[in-house]
Write a structure and sequence with these properties.
This protein has 170 residues and is an alpha/beta fold. 34% of the residues lie in helices and 12% in strands.
Amino acid sequence: MGNTFNSGGGGEQSIAQGDHAIGKQVNYYNTPPPVIPRQLPPLDTCFLGRDNDLAALLEQLQPGKVAAVCGPGGMGKSALAAQAVSKLEPTGFPDGIIFHSFYHQPSTDMALQTICNAFQVEAKAGLASTVRQVRSTCGVLITSRKRADAQGFRLDLKPLGGAARSSGLL
Protein backbone atom coordinates (compact mmCIF):
# COMPACT_ATOMS: atom_id res chain seq x y z
CA MET A 1 0.00 0.00 0.00
CA GLY A 2 2.99 2.33 0.08
CA ASN A 3 4.34 4.46 2.90
CA THR A 4 1.52 5.65 5.12
CA PHE A 5 1.18 6.85 8.67
CA ASN A 6 -1.67 7.46 11.02
CA SER A 7 -1.97 11.16 11.70
CA GLY A 8 -3.80 10.52 14.95
CA GLY A 9 -6.92 12.11 13.57
CA GLY A 10 -8.46 8.86 12.46
CA GLY A 11 -7.08 8.82 8.92
CA GLU A 12 -3.95 7.88 7.09
CA GLN A 13 -1.83 10.18 4.99
CA SER A 14 0.91 9.17 2.62
CA ILE A 15 4.42 10.47 3.20
CA ALA A 16 4.50 11.85 -0.34
CA GLN A 17 1.44 13.94 0.44
CA GLY A 18 3.11 15.12 3.63
CA ASP A 19 6.28 16.10 1.74
CA HIS A 20 4.16 17.94 -0.81
CA ALA A 21 2.34 19.84 1.91
CA ILE A 22 5.66 20.79 3.54
CA GLY A 23 6.96 22.00 0.18
CA LYS A 24 3.95 24.27 -0.14
CA GLN A 25 4.56 25.66 3.34
CA VAL A 26 8.23 26.35 2.60
CA ASN A 27 7.30 28.27 -0.55
CA TYR A 28 4.43 30.04 1.21
CA TYR A 29 6.24 33.37 1.18
CA ASN A 30 7.05 32.94 -2.52
CA THR A 31 10.59 34.29 -2.15
CA PRO A 32 12.45 34.55 -5.44
CA PRO A 33 15.66 32.57 -5.85
CA PRO A 34 18.89 34.57 -5.40
CA VAL A 35 20.17 36.38 -8.47
CA ILE A 36 23.25 34.68 -9.89
CA PRO A 37 24.69 36.96 -12.56
CA ARG A 38 26.51 35.57 -15.60
CA GLN A 39 27.81 38.54 -17.54
CA LEU A 40 30.49 37.50 -20.00
CA PRO A 41 32.67 39.75 -22.13
CA PRO A 42 32.30 39.55 -25.90
CA LEU A 43 34.56 37.01 -27.61
CA ASP A 44 36.86 37.89 -30.50
CA THR A 45 36.04 36.01 -33.69
CA CYS A 46 39.65 34.97 -34.06
CA PHE A 47 41.74 33.75 -31.15
CA LEU A 48 45.04 32.04 -32.01
CA GLY A 49 48.47 31.50 -30.57
CA ARG A 50 47.73 31.93 -26.86
CA ASP A 51 46.85 28.37 -25.79
CA ASN A 52 49.66 28.19 -23.21
CA ASP A 53 48.73 31.61 -21.80
CA LEU A 54 45.08 30.55 -21.68
CA ALA A 55 45.92 27.34 -19.80
CA ALA A 56 48.07 29.25 -17.27
CA LEU A 57 45.33 31.82 -16.71
CA LEU A 58 42.58 29.20 -16.31
CA GLU A 59 44.66 27.44 -13.68
CA GLN A 60 44.82 30.67 -11.66
CA LEU A 61 41.20 31.79 -12.06
CA GLN A 62 39.84 30.45 -8.81
CA PRO A 63 37.54 31.80 -6.12
CA GLY A 64 39.50 33.84 -3.62
CA LYS A 65 42.37 34.61 -6.02
CA VAL A 66 43.37 37.62 -8.07
CA ALA A 67 44.92 37.16 -11.50
CA ALA A 68 46.16 39.83 -13.89
CA VAL A 69 47.09 39.89 -17.56
CA CYS A 70 49.57 42.68 -18.34
CA GLY A 71 51.14 43.98 -21.52
CA PRO A 72 51.23 46.85 -23.99
CA GLY A 73 48.11 47.88 -25.90
CA GLY A 74 47.12 45.61 -28.76
CA MET A 75 48.74 42.47 -27.32
CA GLY A 76 45.45 40.62 -26.87
CA LYS A 77 44.88 41.04 -23.11
CA SER A 78 41.14 41.53 -23.45
CA ALA A 79 40.78 38.70 -25.99
CA LEU A 80 42.67 36.33 -23.68
CA ALA A 81 40.61 37.37 -20.66
CA ALA A 82 37.35 36.91 -22.60
CA GLN A 83 38.40 33.41 -23.70
CA ALA A 84 39.34 32.45 -20.16
CA VAL A 85 36.13 33.75 -18.60
CA SER A 86 34.01 32.03 -21.25
CA LYS A 87 35.57 28.68 -20.28
CA LEU A 88 34.89 29.01 -16.54
CA GLU A 89 32.45 26.49 -15.11
CA PRO A 90 29.53 28.29 -13.45
CA THR A 91 29.61 25.71 -10.65
CA GLY A 92 33.11 26.91 -9.76
CA PHE A 93 31.75 30.43 -9.28
CA PRO A 94 28.36 29.91 -7.63
CA ASP A 95 28.00 33.63 -6.86
CA GLY A 96 28.16 34.40 -10.58
CA ILE A 97 30.46 36.02 -13.10
CA ILE A 98 30.41 39.77 -13.64
CA PHE A 99 32.25 41.56 -16.43
CA HIS A 100 33.10 45.25 -16.25
CA SER A 101 35.20 47.08 -18.79
CA PHE A 102 36.86 50.31 -17.76
CA TYR A 103 36.83 51.51 -21.37
CA HIS A 104 34.41 54.44 -21.43
CA GLN A 105 33.61 53.65 -17.75
CA PRO A 106 36.93 54.48 -16.09
CA SER A 107 35.88 54.97 -12.47
CA THR A 108 35.92 52.48 -9.63
CA ASP A 109 32.45 53.68 -8.61
CA MET A 110 31.12 52.62 -12.03
CA ALA A 111 32.61 49.14 -11.56
CA LEU A 112 31.08 48.85 -8.09
CA GLN A 113 27.72 50.02 -9.45
CA THR A 114 27.94 47.33 -12.15
CA ILE A 115 28.32 44.72 -9.41
CA CYS A 116 25.38 46.12 -7.42
CA ASN A 117 23.22 46.15 -10.56
CA ALA A 118 24.17 42.57 -11.40
CA PHE A 119 23.02 41.37 -7.97
CA GLN A 120 20.01 43.71 -8.04
CA VAL A 121 20.90 45.35 -4.74
CA GLU A 122 20.62 48.99 -3.78
CA ALA A 123 23.76 50.63 -2.40
CA LYS A 124 22.23 52.15 0.72
CA ALA A 125 25.42 52.12 2.78
CA GLY A 126 27.71 53.23 -0.05
CA LEU A 127 28.95 51.30 -3.07
CA ALA A 128 32.09 49.76 -1.58
CA SER A 129 30.33 48.68 1.61
CA THR A 130 27.42 47.16 -0.33
CA VAL A 131 29.71 45.22 -2.66
CA ARG A 132 31.59 43.82 0.33
CA GLN A 133 28.27 42.55 1.71
CA VAL A 134 27.03 40.86 -1.51
CA ARG A 135 30.21 39.05 -2.38
CA SER A 136 31.23 35.74 -0.97
CA THR A 137 34.49 34.22 -2.09
CA CYS A 138 35.15 35.68 -5.50
CA GLY A 139 37.94 35.59 -7.99
CA VAL A 140 39.14 38.67 -9.81
CA LEU A 141 40.67 38.97 -13.28
CA ILE A 142 42.37 42.24 -14.19
CA THR A 143 43.76 43.30 -17.56
CA SER A 144 46.09 46.28 -17.57
CA ARG A 145 48.95 47.89 -19.41
CA LYS A 146 50.54 48.66 -16.03
CA ARG A 147 52.28 45.87 -14.15
CA ALA A 148 51.72 47.84 -10.93
CA ASP A 149 47.96 47.17 -11.27
CA ALA A 150 48.56 43.45 -10.86
CA GLN A 151 47.89 41.72 -7.57
CA GLY A 152 48.40 38.02 -6.98
CA PHE A 153 49.22 36.05 -10.14
CA ARG A 154 50.49 38.14 -13.07
CA LEU A 155 50.74 36.93 -16.66
CA ASP A 156 52.92 39.21 -18.79
CA LEU A 157 51.91 38.85 -22.44
CA LYS A 158 54.67 38.71 -24.99
CA PRO A 159 54.28 39.31 -28.72
CA LEU A 160 52.89 36.37 -30.68
CA GLY A 161 55.30 34.24 -32.71
CA GLY A 162 55.96 34.65 -36.43
CA ALA A 163 53.18 32.30 -37.65
CA ALA A 164 50.37 34.48 -36.32
CA ARG A 165 52.13 37.65 -37.48
CA SER A 166 52.73 36.39 -41.03
CA SER A 167 49.10 35.25 -41.42
CA GLY A 168 47.94 38.84 -40.98
CA LEU A 169 46.14 38.15 -37.71
CA LEU A 170 47.83 40.93 -35.78
